[in-house]
Every structure is written in structure tokens, then in C-alpha cells.
Amino acid sequence: MTRSTCPYCGVGCGVLIGRDGAGEIVVKGDPEHPANYGRLCSKGTALAETLGLEDRLLAPQIDGREAGWDEALELVARRFTETIAEHGPDSVAFYVSGQLLTEDYYVANKLMKGFIGSANIDTNSRLCMASSVAGHRRAFGTDTVPGLYEDLELADLVVLTGSNLAWCHPVLYQRLVAAKAARPEMRVVVIDPRRTATCDIADLHLAVASGGDAAIFNALLAEIARRGAVDRAYLAHVTGFDAALAAAEASDPAMSGVSNAELARFCDLWIGTEKVVTVYSQGINQSSSGTDKVNAILNCHLATGRIGQPGMGPFSITGQPNAMGGREVGGLANMLACHMDLENPTHRAAVQDFWRAPAMPEAAGLKAVDMFRAVGNGKIRAIWIIHTNPVVSMPDADAVRAALRGCDFVVVSDVTARTDTAALAHVLLPATAWGEKDGTVTNSERRISRQRRVLPAPGGARHDWRILAEVGQRMGWRGEFCWTSPAEVFAEYAALSGVGGRLGVDFDISEYSEISLPDYAALEPFVWPQGPGRKGGRFFADGQFYTPDGKARMIAVTPRAPVSRISAEFPFRLNTGRTRDQWHTMTRTAKSARLNQHLGEPYLEIHPDDAARVGLEAAGIARVASADGEALLRVYLSDAVRPGEVFAPMHWTGETASAARIDAVVSAVTDPVSGQPESKATAVSITPFQAR
Ligand code: SF4
Questions:
Q1: Would you call 356 exposed, middle or buried from its count of C-beta atoms within 10 A (0-12, 13-18, 19+)?
Q2: Which domains does the chain have, with CATH numbers?
Q3: Most C-beta atoms within 10 A of its C-beta, which of 80, 166, 214, 549?
Q4: Where is the 4Fe-4S Mo/W bis-MGD-type domain (predicted)?
Q5: Whose CA is nearest to atom 3 of ligand 1?
Q6: Has residue 691 got a pLDDT over 80?
Q7: Taking the model in full, what pTM does it have?
Q8: Contacts of 23 (CB under 8 A, 6+ apart)
């Protein structure tokens, strides 16, 4: 059996891939992988069912006709070079994905930031965890997740806020369920507008109003101070306490939508339990005030010193398998490789020197929503989209589709041509898929694991790092993009992390700077950092942070309602998210009949009282509309959603249900700090669909 890593969520479970007696591929949980110890969820268990080649893109295409690699790569290099020469480096962009392996990400980032000389590279991870990155950087000075998965098992209280862990990070949920069964004294609090499957283990569920999370954590901070629970010794390592507390005391707990009695119960539990972990995910991040919400959570842990110790700390959980790797490698438009800061001249010079780069941007590039706006208004004239489907997944998705339709030159690398985005490409490049490629990914606890190849590349499919490197070479940088294996890319990346480590940056894996091919092949999962300064473990129990003065910063947070306003025309609040058994826009999971059985079609979850009010019946068709677009969805009556709020899954595409692209309805409102879209709070109208 070959050891690899599941390509879906940020839990990063280890898998064993082999063949059964009939020669069919089988995938099992890896009992030795520290993320899952052999467990898999429904998606991981069905991996072998998603490897068929029936819809694979097997040769490059130019304007819909099959082409050779030479012709396609020459065209991509020439059109990017010409566009840059005529309109400058910021007239081109890469939009990449948390599905990329770290080695792929590294090459894309080096090509755009170091050689093209623009910071216009952003990732679809912008849609899922950019607010956590921004919150970490504001509080800690770097994007550092303090804890480890085992902290959820060691805690006496686990708070899950904006996280449907049971469906979105199922194996971590399984670990939590097992820990709670073993230690009945453990308590779990779920903060979520919906009564999700995660609430099955909740001792307390706070059905927070949409956007009300910061009001809850501000109320908690005020109560921590009022009850004398502040850790004064730890506060010596923190600045901003007084301002953060004043803002917390000034905020209105009623904004949370939670009763005073429920809030008091929550505060009793949180303040009265030393070993507390607060897990947060998309429900916090996908907000126009997501960064503030993250900092409201971090404030409570900093005020009490409950951070970086066994069973204690704030814990952001990433959505995608390599969202963390993308953060580390500089896949966001406002970051450099290895957690170095694009806008820090010392960091910039160090990376430029290491790369021997001709030109480095001095300011952040365009974040995802602004990037597609720039495509729409002609400022970006050539874009390369890699392993993501923004025509389905971006907010205001119809505008994204129109922007790409009007763009001079669109390149798409993917495993299939059957996406709404690939349909708009001038050049389609066939990439290898999971099981066919080698590289590394980082999960939510900073654990770097190998993905390993067990299948040959089908047809003409190539690895992403190699496609990007070949374009870099054809654009004139032959010597700088001449790796012969992902192991060489990883070694260069590790060496660069040592440069950052010497500048005092947290991310340092320089121990692997000279990793050999056999050692890379055998690389065991490890938690970073792994450099001369320190190895693995947790961060911040010692009060040492990565800010200029070495102290953490508490941030004054004033809770804000969602930007999209409820009105007579748009009286409902639309929440979007994942279902248990589908992944993203279903290009892989929809291949499994077993996974499709869970929830077979797109739906709108609506409270029965609301449905009756607008004339909808169970299993009818609802028309969901915002100022930006509309979708048609099957009605699913449920009192698990709050009256006035509705929920729709984000997976279905134009191909599988022509009017079900829910992101055509979601407004492209973003957090001003993180640039993350507010995907969970668009004001919408709901009416029965009348066939014309
Ligand atoms: Fe894969 Fe996530 Fe399921 Fe683990 S929990 S098997 S990483 S989808």
C-alpha cells in the first residue's frame, strides 16, 4: 500500500492506496497518520470511486481544438509576454487553488511575484480562510495556528463557532466525539445560526443571529474582566487590552440574537473551564467583518493566557486540503513565500535575492473579488486559472462569467474540461489529478504530509509545477525554472524558509533544504517549524510573538451587521455552505453514486413558517433572488434554520442543475481587511417558481 493524503478537506487525513485481488484501486485510512489514525469520512472512503477517466481532459486545447503541448505552452508564454510588454505586469493574473500541492503553489508564486513582477496571484482559499490569516497577522504578527488537533481531545470545553465540523471536517469531529465519550465531563458548545449535525454533541447550542458572533465574544471578554478572570501575568505579553475591553463593554449583546440567559451560561462555561479550545471556520471567516470576528475570539484567549498549551487555544480550521500550504507558500496576493511579508522591504529583498528575481512587486496584488472585477473592466487582460471553478464558486458568479467571456486571454489548467470556467478558456491545459502526482500539503494543525503518485498520468496530462515551470522557461527564465522533480522544488522552498527563519519568521522547515529524492519519497508527516530554532509543537504559551515588539495585540472590535440589508424587497438572509458528501463544485465527488445518494440535488433549507408565508410547499421549487442574480432550488422544510434565514449548499453547477448556481445570488461584498467575501449573509427574496 502507498501512503498518501486525502485531497478534500483541511483535516488532511492519511490514506493507504493499493489494489484488491481483482486489481481494482482501494483506499483505506492510514492507521499511522496522526491526523486521523485510520479514520476516514464518507468522502475519503469513496476516493477510489472518483478516479475514472470518463470526463478527463487528456490533451491541451486551443479555442476548442486539440493541440500539442509545444503549441499550447508557446501560445500561453507568448500571450502573457506580449500583454505584459504592452500593458505592464499588473495586466496579468493567476487565480489558483487550495487543491494545488505546495510545490505547484511555490512555482506559480515564484513566477508571478518574482519574475513577472506582479502580486496578482490569489487563491480560492481567499473565499474560505483569508479572515483567519488577517486576524492571526494582526494579533500574532504572523499567520500562525497556535495549537494541534490533540488539543480538541485534551480540552474540557470545546467551542465550535461558525463550524459545522460534523459535515465539513468529519474526521476531526469523529475524534471529538470519541474524546467526549471517553471523558463525559467534557463540554461542547456550538455557535451557529443553524441547528447542524454538529449540534448532536452540543451541551449548549447558541443559535446566533447572522453576523452576531463578535457580539458574543465581546460579551465574553467583558465578562472575563468583570469576573476578574484576566491573566494579568500573561497580559505582560499583550498590548491593546484596555481598548479591546472598552470596545467589548460598549457593544450590545443583543446583536448576537442570543438570550441573556444563554449568554450567561456560555460565559459560565468558558470562564469556568481553564482548558478551552475555540474552533472557528467559515461561519466566522466568510463575513464582511470576518477579521474582526477572528480577533474577538483571539482577544478572549489572549486575555486569559489560554493559548498554545495542551487543551487550550483558538483554532481556525481550513476548508481545503492545502489551504494552509497556500498560506505558507505565499499563494495570497498580499503575502510572500514562507510567511514573509510582501510589504516588508527586508523580507522582499531577502526573497528577491534568494530567487535572483529581476522584479518584485512592492504592494499587494488584487484579491480574488477585485481580481475578477479587474478582468471585467479590462485592467487584467490575461488570466490563468488553475484547479478552480470561479464561474460557480465566486460571489456574483454571473459577473465573473461575463468578465471571463470578455477577457482577451483565459488559460485554464484542470483535470476536466467539464466545468463552467473551462468552457470559457482560450487555452485548456490537462493537469494530473490526485493519485497521479507527487507533492506535499499542510493541514489545519501545520502538519505537512506527502501526496504520492500511484497511477500514471493519463493521456497528455502533466503536473502543475511542470506546466508552470515550462511557461516560465518559455517566458525567458530558463535557469530559474529548471527543476526536474517536485522534491527539488520542495528543497528550494525549504531553503527559502531558512532565510525567513533567520529573519525571525515563524515558518521554518529549513531542516529539509537538502532533502534527497529517497528521503522526499519516504517523508513522514511532520508539524512545522522544523529548523534550527525550534521543532514542531505549539506556539505562544511563552508569550513570544512575531510583532515588532514581540507582544500580541488585542484588537478593539465593534460588532457590525452584514452589509447586505434586509428590506421589504429582500426579506430573507441567505446562508451558504457545504453538504456532507460533496466537495466544491462536484467535479470529483459527483462521480461517486454512493456520495450522490446523500443529497441528490440542490435545495433551499427554509423554516416551515417562512415557507407557508411565501406560499412554498415541501419539495416545491423556490426562486431565490438577490440584487445580483437568482437560482432555482428544491424546497426543504426544516426548523433547524432560524425564521427569516435560509440555507443553500454551494456545490451545484450550471451543468448539473442549470439554475442552481447559488453563488450567482451571493453578493460580492468583502471584509475590508481580509478581502474575504461575505458568503453567508446576502439579503434575498424567496418566491414560488412559476414555470413560464
Ligand atoms: Fe478527507 Fe477531510 Fe474526510 Fe479526512 S475528514 S477523509 S481529509 S474529507
A1: exposed
A2: 2-50 (3.30.200.210), 61-120+332-527 (3.40.50.740), 130-317 (3.40.228.10), 572-688 (2.40.40.20)
A3: 214
A4: 1-55
A5: 41
A6: no
A7: 0.96
A8: none
